[in-house]
Amino acid sequence: MQALYVNPTDCYNIHWPIVRGQLNVHPGPGGSLTAVLADLETIWSHVIQKHLEVQLKDLKYYRCILLVPDIYNRQHIKEVVNMLLLNMGFSAIIVHQESVCATFGSGLSSACVVDVGDQKTSLCCVEDGVSHRNSRLCLAYGGSDVTRTFFWLLQRAGFPYRDCQLSSRLDCQLLQHLKETFCHLDQDISGLQDKEFQTRFPESPSLLYQVRLGDEKLQASMGLFYPTTFGIVGQKMTSLQYRSQGDSEDPHDEHYLLATQSKQDQSSKSAADRKAISRPGGALDGEMSSQGGIGELSDLPRGCGMGGSGAGMQGEMELGPAQSECLMGAGEVDEPLSAHLSRKSAIMSQFESKALGLDKAILHSIDCCASDETKRKMYSSILVVGGGLMFHGAQEFLLHRIINKMPPSFRRLVDNVEVITRPKDLDPRLISWKGGAVLACLDTTQEMWIHQREWQRFGVRMLRERAAFVW
């Protein structure tokens, strides 16, 4: 935070290591992965020494919990773990997902976790400590977009502070404060109201302004439900989990499993065909054995590899088009793998161009769950965390929109739709961190620790062995 209040006239170049929930790798100065990791290491080292009063040389006596996004970049996580264990010198680490830790911190066993941050909004359904891969979504908007929209509305309303610019860090801090103070989602509050605010800048006197506001306070907050208001163009609005591109240090990754599973299926089918032909009346037996083979393959879990055509069709009917990475693993045997992946990627790209509102994204995420019983659990426990939806009346407003838009069939099945914005009266911005602290104390997580020597010897393979989610 101190860097945000540096005098704009001073000769500093401010870097943002994380943007939209991911490492800020870009082609400009300081945008390489090495530079971003160095910035993160500098920030974390400073915080550990100043606020936790722990010397860096003593980190070998400490362990750490790394919370990662639900939709994650494997290469980035690998490099961050490498930096924490080898560069900073922590003795061990646990890597877990933010949504699962949010349920731990709130004391819930199952929930649809909605994390509304400053620059991104992520959704994921968690059941008994397991994140449903199909339900993960990341939306490219958050609280900062509400701030930007509020500024545009203020200008239309005759904002008295004429020199306000979004390019100024201090002005952005002022606008964020005004948004948090004035904006709401309570439709009972209406009419014109006179508001006052004060500006404080280095080497300048404090000034008091007055502004008259009407529906601008509600319209800016409503942008989370109508994201076209933000006017975001030129980037993906919705992100899904893609397959890993492979890692030379992890030869037995999902690509290896996919290839071996396909070969096993083909060899099993060939053996069954030869056995059927060798019998009397081989044509009829061959048909029956082929049908039996498809039945056996359809019993395999979705996403475990190339299955039969029946398994692929069943997966698409249950999950819908482009719901998740698992769709890319099921397909017809006769279709080449490269063509199948290209087709699925095209479908996913088309879906990612859509701008889903927060309520529609929640319904979409819940609808991606496999069973009606799981969906019922999610509707009865929608957990909102993060600091992007801390408006007055947000809980009732979101609940009203969910009930009105949920499928009619589930209105009869779900006894009580509940939106939780402040579990146990805790700050929603700290729920995931509290869950990480709870995770470190559990006896069942002792086998999840990745120690420094193990990482030095086995590298990223330890994440596949020890991570509590599918790597």
Topology, element by element:
Blueprint (H helix, E strand, L loop, with lengths): L17 E2 L2 E2 L9 H18 L12 E6 L5 H14 L4 E6 H9 L3 E7 L4 E7 L2 E2 L5 E3 L3 H14 L12 H14 L10 E7 L7 E7 L2 H6 L16 E2 L14 H25 L3 H17 L10 H11 L17 H16 L5 H10 L4 H8 L2 E4 L8 H12 L2 H6 L5 E2 L10 H11 L8 E2 H7 L2 H6 L5
Parallel strand pairs: 3-4, 5-12, 12-13
Antiparallel strand pairs: 1-2, 4-14, 5-6, 6-7, 6-8, 8-11, 9-10
Helix pairs in contact: 3-15, 4-5, 7-8, 8-9, 11-13
Question: How would you describe this structure to a colleague?
Answer:
The protein has 471 residues and is an alpha+beta fold. It has 17 helices and 14 strands. The radius of gyration is 26 Å and the shape is globular. The two termini are 33 Å apart.
Overview in brief:
The chain is an alpha+beta fold and 471 residues long.
| Poorly predicted parts | 281-334
Instruction: Characterize the quaternary organization of these chains.
Output: single chain
Indicate the structural class: alpha+beta
Counted beta strands? 14
Characterize the largest beta sheet: strand count, sense, and whether it forms a barrel. 7 strands, mixed
Mean pLDDT over the residues: 81
Q: Please state the overall shape, judged from the principal axes of the Cα atoms.
A: globular
Termini separation: 33 Å
Compute the CA-based radius of gyration.
Answer: 26 Å
